[in-house]
Amino acid sequence: MRYSRPQISMSSCNPLSKSEKAKITRLRRKLLGWYDENGRDFPWRREEAGTFEKICVEVLLQRTKAETVAAAYPKFFKKYNSWSQIANASIAELEETLKPLGLWKRRAQSIKMLATYAHEHRGVFPATKEELLKVTAVGQYVCNAILLFQHGKARPLIDVNMARVIERYLRPRKLADIRYDPWLQAATLWLVSDKKAINVNWAVLDFANSICRSKKPRCCICILNKSCSYRKRTILEEPI
Ligand code: SF4
To answer: Domain coordinates of the chain in residue numbers?
Structure first.
């Protein structure tokens, strides 16, 4: 299936204030500019990677470093080049292949269930969140990945990295679980509401990895340091 341009949609009932929306829009612009210069090159980001590879990779990327997945990528996709091949593989074989990535038991189950659905539906997943979440092994993250990569909808790949950048730049969320915090959900959705939604997602991940790191963020060289809430707070707390 060909990738189409992301469709942008926002609910009319939005927990973001007008000024937060404006700030996130500026953040998006800055991140896209930063990404053009500093984005990382991974096999699943290249032209030749199709929807199948892009969705599979998102299952592999959960709780795993992109560099680790990149190292396992050639072997994995040489062995399995379609949903059907994964669907027909045994769990034991998938576990063995996925061992270098860690969490292989859980990952083998998830990818097999996802592939079985895809195999039975000619590689096409439902195009709405409601229908997608009914598919076994599809949680919020994979649901958004499918909407983004297969159906061209502007959806955020929310993980701890994306949450960290948004929260430091604006303000902390209220709920512990990032999947259920309505403010964070709205903020990340607004962030990627752009025809370059895929690049925005990748930009946030790369930025979180090299600049806005969880430990020792590199605020001094950060393009956002003049408007970042976290930076303003920490400067005030720094000893003179
Ligand atoms: S200024 Fe620091 S905390 Fe703020 S976005 Fe940049 S690196 Fe992150």
So the answer is: 18-230
